[in-house]
Records
---
Amino acid sequence: MSPCCAVQQCMGFVSGIINAMTRIGIDARLLAYRKGGIAEYTRQLENALASLDRDTSYAIIHRFRDRHSHCPAPNFRRLNAYTPAHHRWERTALSLELLPRRLDLLHSPDFIPPRRGARRHVITIHDLHFLDYPQFQTPDARRYYADQIHWAVDHADHIFAQTEGTRHDIVERLGVPEEKITVHLLGINPAFRPTLTDILAAYDVPADYLLFVGTIEPRKNLVGLLQAYAQLYRRRPDLPPLVLGGQRGWNADESLAAIDELRLQTQVVWFEDVPFDILPALYSGATLLVLPSFHEGFGLPAIEAMACGTPVIVAERGSLPEVVGDHGIYIDPEDIESIADAIQQLLDDAVLREQMRVRGLQHAATFSWYRTAEIALDVYRRVLAT
């Protein structure tokens, strides 16, 4: 063996030892409580890291009562924590649990890191809607995020943002240096693609329908959507039914009460807690998806629907314009007529629907969880090197 090859082999061996000795923690406690949003981001990031990095030792922090394992590869180990997510003493209590584990880096995907859970800390800030729209948060959520976010960005060694818009907000609203923030767009699960819809018959989903997907909570503007739908239904009684796919969130009863108030009981189908393996078919079978949220940090349902070949109508708010680009129809979420007109436009124009279907499929194909994880891993390594 030449001296050069020997040196390269030695360097590779040492690098392998360093990777094996490095312990990166990912806080996945939220997965015990929720399915979408931040929980989905955490789950998909772990899965993509597992296919990308087989050498580093990962400690996946579970809520001790979580019956599911979120460890996708042999180099991922479960670490149970008793501290519940969003607890008022979480920063201190989780630190005490993690200190004996001697983690080199801890990634907190849910904004707020512990005081000292590892040698280095990385956090993800999905958006700052709790500062801009406090009325759409529970009192506990407002206290948890708004009271701690300034401390969190100062304490973190590095910050992930999902979009450039959120990065700009973090710089402007929280005074964080731009170089401390890295954007990594979210990806799309490969399961989201045009799918046969036969399976929906077992779930009483109508053959022809409009679709909303998301947690039932005030921020999603479900009441505005229902009012627009009722207005349009009065103009055209042949309007396809509206399917609501999503689990209960904060103040869900207030949003769902609008179904009775607007006398839409026969026209609106609530599909609660849609099983994941049904979701691609639910998107694929819809004539269109409407996401009229007052704010979205990213808006995964819009991209998932596009990946299934479904045209989308979205609010011109938050990160949705950046994520959807010029491949959707935009509405003003506070203008009921705007929502109704967009639905009618798309229903009446089959050519436009087909154009949007093709463009949406092409656009959705550019979103990759593997790329999200590549960026995350590069940041992990750079932070650990400091």
---
Amino acid sequence: MTKDTVLKYFEMALRIWMAYILVSNSGIGIITPLEELGMPPKIFEIISGLWKTGFMMHMVKAVELVTGLMLLFNFYVPLALLGLIPVVVNIYGIHIFLFNRYFTNGLCMLLVCGFLVFRHWDKYKHLVVRR
């Protein structure tokens, strides 16, 4: 096996893992009530407040579901990452500032997004690098 083949399989495995996390969590608050999750009261207040806006958490869950399916089916992965990275940064921020935990699934998701951006860098470099 060549290095490129190994990276391709590694990328596929990470995409599927990320898609699983996103699609399975997109139902939280819709299918699974927040009360059943056993969250600390402060976090429950914040997340239920976002649901009460009628917009914020609905959009987050829609982005999680759509980008998760895009990653699962390898459909416009660079575009999916553009929508997903702000959500993942916020997920990790919640883990840091509300749960006081640094090494969580949020960090793993952020690192996977970084790896996927690196793998698709040719699609992004014209946005970042000026000639």
---
Amino acid sequence: MYSPVLSTMIAGAFRDHAPAPREFSLLNLKSGQSLTIRYKSIGCSHHYSYRFVFTAHEVVIYALDTPGKIGTPRKLGTHRLTDEERIRLDRLFVFYAGKTEGGCPTVDTIRFTKRDGTQRVRTTTYVDATGSTLNRREMLPLPNLAGRLLSKHPG
């Protein structure tokens, strides 16, 4: 359950916390709400996509476009999120909501869909062509989050 006091205390524990846009903040998800993110990355030598289904304290991750099984999601598993991971993800979401133009040949498309129960509340799509999220310690890039489960369940 969301607690403004707890969220403020958690955020205070990490320097330079910038909250995600309220409607897409993991720290602000209430019981019964979820945030689904469809993440697609296309670059010179890669093409992959994932679906992340976040609830207040965990995420279920699916690999999409599995070779030989186009359109068939493959469940990678469930990951319990730490408070630090939720804050780092919120920072990533703030980054996406900002100006993300760039000249990198890798283009990431990120579609956020917030739900309250089964009711869709809002859907927004961001495009990031900066190539600057993977090496920033204050954020948790979505491919890195998926990689934690991929390393446990390869193939």
